[in-house]
Amino acid sequence: MLTEMARGLRFPEGPVAFADGSVALVEIERRTITRIAADGTSIVLARPGGGPNGLAQGPDGALYVTNNGGLAFHEDAQGLRVSGQPDDYSGGRIERVDPADGSVAMLATSTGSGFNLRGPNDLVFDRDGGIWFSDSGKRRPRELDYGGVYWLSPDRRTIKEVAHPFMTANGIGLSPDERTLYVAETEGARLWAFDITGPGEIERHPWPSPHGGRLLYAAGGRYLRYDSLAVEACGNICVATLIEGGITVISPAGELVEFIPMPDRMTTNICFGGPDLRTAYVTLSHGGRLVSMRWPRPGLPLNFVNR
Questions:
Q1: Within a domain: residue 306?
Q2: What confidence score (pLDDT) does residue 62 get?
Q3: Which of 15, 49, 109, 244 is deepest in the core (most CB within 10 A)?
Q4: Exposed (0-12), middle (13-18) or buried (19+): which is 162, by Cβ within 10 Å?
Q5: Which domain holds residue 245?
Q6: Residue 215 lies in a domain
Q7: Strand stretches in 143-224, DSSP E
Q8: Is the N-terminal amide bond of 199 cis, ω within 30° of 0?
Q9: What is the separation of C-alpha 23 from the centre of its chain, rounded to a whole number of angstroms?
Q10: 214 lies in some domain
Q11: What are the CA-CA distances from residue 276 to residues 5, 45, 58, 300, 303 (Å)?
């Protein structure tokens, strides 16, 4: 059973659940970071502009943002959906937001090799404070930029390119033992696994892997797309699934555990909260809603989240 926490949001994503029952999230079309209280009231924490896409709490209590630089949107009777790169695209970047005063600090706009970030999408902190993040690239009417997966060091001075090219790298998460990095690829609805060997380093699998990852699961045979993800305490990977609208749960062995349908084709993100981490918060972006539900299993505690 779903409980609606908020409606009228402008393409919400990146939920972060807090101990008081509130949820911080981004509104990509509105270009804000918003906090929804347990009673449904909301306040804007920051206005970073561009396209705030992913959100996570860091070791210093600040909120860290993967900003895609802006997205164009199409709106009709069904709601909002993304339609490519906008005319005012401002470049991809990683940002730090002080939730107390809403100030925004730029942390990174390019890799160490000078390649400019195109469309940073999602992020996750490892236990040492490093940031693993995805870049979906950018889509224009007749062009598509490749994206990739990157790692930003705990001192925020070094970016490593972990995996490239990715057609549309999206959701990202770590296994409970932090030995495996999971990345959801939107186009083709594929879930990839990367074996972590050190800070920002992976074991590279040979061709035909396009980027060194191993294919863990591919939906196949159905028209759907993958968005963000969250990991359960038992290690299952919960992938927000577009078009069919729901959450696809995949085991660490690459087996389908279950599919939990949602009443929105743009089911974009999931995170876990509550005292036992069995409350799932899900963003339904087409209709602009944040909902919660009792989840069958507890979620994995995230590093540095104040519960």
A1: no
A2: 97
A3: 15
A4: buried
A5: 3-294
A6: yes
A7: 143-144, 147-152, 159-166, 169-174, 180-185, 190-198, 201-202, 214-218
A8: no
A9: 15
A10: yes
A11: 19, 27, 21, 10, 16
* Cβ–Cβ < 8 Å for 225, 239: no
> How far is it, in rounded angstroms, from Cα 272 to Cα 15?
9
Residues pairing with 253 in the sheet? none
Position 136, amino acid = S
CA separation, residue 300 to residues 28, 143, 278 (Å): 26, 38, 10
CATH number at residue 159: 2.120.10.30
Tens digits of per-residue pLDDT, 58-104? 999 999 999 999 999 999 988 999 999 999 999 999 999 999 999 99
- Cβ-based neighbours of 157, under 8 Å, separated by 6 or more: none
In a domain, 149, yes or no: yes
How distant, in Å, are the alpha carbons of 69, 109, 121, 138, 181 from that of 112?
19, 10, 19, 20, 21
Label residue 248 exposed, middle or buried (CB < 10 Å: 0-12, 13-18, 19+). Answer: buried
Residue 29 φ then ψ, to 5°: -70, -35
Our count of domains for the chain comes to 1
Residues of the chain short of pLDDT 50, as ranges, are none
Indicate yes or no: pTM above 0.85.
Answer: yes
